[in-house]
Predict the 3D structure of the following.
Amino acid sequence: MRLLVLGGTGFVGRAVADEALARGYQVTVFNRGRNPAPAGVTALVGDRLAADGLAALDAGGWDAVVDTWSGDPAAVRSAAGSLKGRAGHYTYVSSRSVYAEGSPSPLTELSPVVEPDTEFAYAAQKRGGEIAAEQGFDGPVLLGRAGLILGPYEDVGRLPWWLNRLHRGGATLAPGPRDLPLQYVDARDLAGFLLDAAGRGLAGAYNLVSESGHATMGELLDTANEVTGGNAELRWTDPRVILNAGVEPWTDLPIWLPPGPDHEHLHYAEVTKARAAGLVCRPVRETVADTWAWLLSIGRTPPQRADRPTVGLDPAVEAALLASHQTNKI
């Protein structure tokens, strides 16, 4: 397969490029050239939002395209339009954020979606990207609605923060309940599905995450603690205590959302369609161990996307909360 990855040096795009290379595909990556490209690819440079920014793609032709863009949908519209007649299949890596808040669980591919001009910037941009891909390209378009994405090369910082925090050890705030179900996808499993789907010419929307409860918050943190040396004493704490202390779910405590509507929205998607089409998710231990190995290989300082906030709980806030609520463990 001749594959074009629009992106290809960050997180998901890097996973797609690496998987494609492992399969023996001819891989071209196109991006702004800010990060090193994987060895073995053809690297093209351009700015999708600039005039003539796609000029480097003018002479090429590909069997499939994977587009990882997050931001102004105009970039997707221009890329999809310029590749008409020169590519056989187009995948847009979207997000389950496109589903309208308040939609009943479990969310399916037919659940209501946000309007591309709503105030929810990220969700609206992703929905706008979906529309741009489908309207701009003249072949099959797959919309990969991923949820929480974990794994090596993560540049958002969620799992890397937990791994570094647990490695530091000591009394550690663990947000409960322990059996809180998680629904996520390893970037490498996402990449494998996208490449298989492109080869088969699949089109339309797919919820690309594990089954709900593929792991729990307890399994994730217990595994991460073990993998990083077992230095932490996990203090499982009632969500109400955490929220009353002003600690923000998802940002102060990455990955975690307390039981309630937000948790249901992110962790209760219907994935029957994706599983029937071949999505397979590896065990949580493999994701955690491989991410830790990668993190160690780069000095435990992960890359940080400029368009995402830095995550993690202030150590002083954590210490104060633990000291004030020693009897509120669950």
About this structure: The mean pLDDT is 95. The first strand starts at residue 2 and ends at 6. The radius of gyration is 20 Å.
